[in-house]
């Protein structure tokens, strides 16, 4: 995805006056009750921007973007590792999208970022953002969805196909990548929760779709069609096709 496209969209939402300043960085672990969640925060002014990563990504996936954004906007930028990813812990007795979001809520409240947010979300992170926004009407003032999962695409049938495609790897995931293992185990539930929450996601959303989705089948067109459909379901959403871009899987 072209960084310029993302920057332009964020500027359109987050344009409070700012003064260039040297970044203050807070890299911290927050106790959520049964595990610790890792946050990386570049402090700034105006509306804080929270980044929600794709399925198998941690906070560092945003490093290249956040460095440039802070230089231009001086906004507060928040990235974090979901449970089981990066530096974050994991409570295997409390897994799934709702439990993950409850941990995020605890972390944001303890850090003082539970009043208003702008969100930038990628891939499976779109499902998390929809559920999060439905639980907190009015908290998210606007969002950018970058090639995100949509209820139109992540159907129960598609969820089963995804699980089947990873069936032979699940044992090794459980041993070596527990975050990925539990994310996949709860993939169908995440899709269902996102479908329930989507009608309640009433904040303005810019949907950015890649020109070349990640699949090697007719799913490419289905993915693109579902993104367009999601963008047209409410009048305060718009769709942008980022031409000559490729998207990574998940």
From TrEMBL:
Matching entries from Gene3D superfamilies are given as: alpha/beta hydrolase
Q: Does the keyword Phosphoprotein apply?
A: no
Sorted keywords for this record are:
Hydrolase, Signal
| Residues of the signal peptide | 1-23
Q: Which GO terms describe its molecular function?
A: hydrolase activity
InterPro entries, per the entry: AB_hydrolase_1 (IPR000073), AB_hydrolase_fold (IPR029058)
Q: Which residues form the AB hydrolase-1 domain?
A: 48-175
Q: Which SUPFAM superfamilies match?
A: alpha/beta-Hydrolases (SSF53474)
Q: What is this protein called?
A: Alpha/beta hydrolase
Biological source species = Mucilaginibacter achroorhodeus
């Amino acid at each position: 995805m072209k960084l310029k496209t993302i920057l332009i969209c964020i500027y359109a939402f987050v344009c409070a006056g700012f003064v260039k300043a040297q970044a203050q960085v807070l890299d911290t672990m927050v106790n959520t009750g049964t595990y610790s969640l890792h946050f990386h925060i570049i402090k700034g002014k105006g509306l804080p921007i929270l980044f929600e990563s794709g399925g198998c990504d941690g906070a560092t996936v945003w490093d290249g973007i956040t460095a440039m954004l802070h230089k231009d906007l001086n906004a507060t930028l928040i990235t974090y590792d979901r449970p089981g990813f990066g530096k974050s812990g994991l409570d295997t007795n409390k897994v799934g999208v709702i439990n993950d979001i409850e941990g995020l809520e605890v972390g944001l409240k303890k850090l003082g970022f539970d009043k208003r947010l702008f969100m930038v979300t990628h891939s499976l992170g779109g499902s998390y953002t929809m559920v999060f926004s439905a639980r907190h009407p009015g908290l998210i003032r606007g969002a950018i969805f970058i090639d995100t999962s949509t209820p139109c695409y992540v159907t129960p049938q598609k969820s089963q196909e995804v699980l089947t495609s990873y069936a032979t790897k699940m044992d090794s995931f459980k041993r070596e990548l527990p975050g990925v293992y539990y994310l996949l185990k709860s993939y169908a539930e995440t899709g269902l929760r996102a479908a329930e929450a989507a009608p309640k996601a009433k904040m303005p959303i810019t949907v950015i779709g890649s020109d070349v989705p990640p699949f090697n089948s007719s799913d490419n067109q289905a993915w693109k069609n579902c993104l367009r459909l999601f963008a047209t379901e409410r009048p305060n959403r718009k769709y942008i096709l980022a031409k000559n871009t490729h998207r990574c899987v998940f």
